[in-house]
Structure formats: structure tokens, C-alpha cells
Amino acid sequence: AQSVTQLDSQVPVFEEAPVELRCNYSSSVSVYLFWYVQYPNQGLQLLLKYLSGSTLVKGINGFEAEFNKSQTSFHLRKPSVHISDTAEYFCAVSWMDSSYKLIFGSGTRLLVRP
Amino acid sequence: DAGVIQSPRHEVTEMGQEVTLRCKPISGHDYLFWYRQTMMRGLELLIYFNNNVPIDDSGMPEDRFSAKMPNASFSTLKIQPSEPRDSAVYFCASRPTSGAYNEQFFGPGTRLTVL
Known about the structure:
The complex is a heterodimer of chains A (114) and B (115). Chain A is an all-beta fold. Chain A is built from no helices and 12 strands. In chain A, the strands form 3 sheets. In chain A, strands 2, 5, 6, 10, 11 and 12 form a 6-stranded mixed β-sheet that branches. In chain A, strand 10 and strand 11 (103-104) form a beta hairpin. Chain B is 0% helix and 54% strand. The termini of chain B are far apart. In chain B, the strands form 2 sheets. In chain B, strands 2, 4, 5, 6, 9, 10 and 11 form a 7-stranded mixed β-sheet that branches. In chain B, strands 1-3-8-7 form a 4-stranded antiparallel β-sheet, with no helix packed on it. Chain B is globular, with a radius of gyration of 13 Å.
């Protein structure tokens, strides 16, 4: 079955430190990959997406992610986080044969401390 | 562009009552999705529509849940009767057929509390 794994439920980090949020998915069949961010009491907002081409994708708010097909991973990174980055981050995958479904990971809560 | 609109934003009801959640997708989007988010189960897809037709309702938890899309600009998710375990945040999302590569646009959610 198709699945998306975010191993870290919570990642605490100090302000201005770098951060990596991990995402792995179950199959190397052609996929579209997404990271969404959810701020408290809000809906999900698209952070970035990988459709094709360059494996390094840049998104909003200084975030970037790298698609690694051999490791079926799509880890999210930011070189220097801010307090305002505190939020829940969801990795989502759409397999090209999945009838337009997005499968979400369980989410990683990024907690930025001063 | 107003984005996906959901109402109400908060709903508190008593067990056994009927609950109706509403969603207006982004104009021109012909896919509509209903999700439920809980601490225990994360974000779950309940059902999705294409051109107002339900395509996959395998995520609907049980017969107490039903969803309709009478036209391209409106959808409802109904729970009857409601139970405390239905307490969750319910999201609606929409996307167009082409060009968005499955990117979905989410509404702000409805926080449902069943007492």
C-alpha cells in the first residue's frame, strides 16, 4: 500500500539554527511531492512542490526540499529558522496512478525556541 | 480569489444531533475533497468529488457520514447522528483538473466538538 512516513513527530530547534524535516514514501513509481505547513488554528498552506526536473526545489519562507528517487525521500530543509516557523509540517505524495489522491504523512511539529 | 470557504468555523453540538458542514470550492476547480484531522489519526481523506460526482468515498467512516455536491460551487458533509468520537477538524480542499499536478487548496477548516 502507498504510504508516507514522517518519522519525527516533533523537532525542537533554536532560533537561527538549521533544520531538516524528514519524509519518506513507499514506492519509487512516478510521484508528485508536496510539503504543506499548518499554523495553529489554520488550514494547510502549500510550502513547495516537486513535479519534475531539478531535484532541489525552493519554496516560500526560505524552505527548500530535495527529491531523492533512490531513497524515496523528500526532506525539507531551512538553513536558519525563525520563531515564526513554529508550525506543523506535512509531507504529501501523489502517485501518478492514484486517481488524484494526496496521501499525507502524520506531520512533524517544528518548535522554534528563542 | 477568496480561496476555499468553509462554514461554520466552529461547531459545538450534543451527541445525537445532526451536523452539517459546508464548503465552497475555488471557482473553476472541479475536484473537491473532504478531510478529517485528529490527533490520533492525523489527516484522513473522507471522500472526493469530480465534476460534482463522488468518486471515492472509501474513507467515510460509517453510514452516519454522508456528503453531497449539488453544484460546482457547494458541498456539504453531514453527520447524523453525531457522536463524541466525531470531534475533529474537518477540512475541505479543491483543485482544478489541469495544471496543478494534484496540488490541493485547503479551506480554514471547521472545528467540530460533539459533547
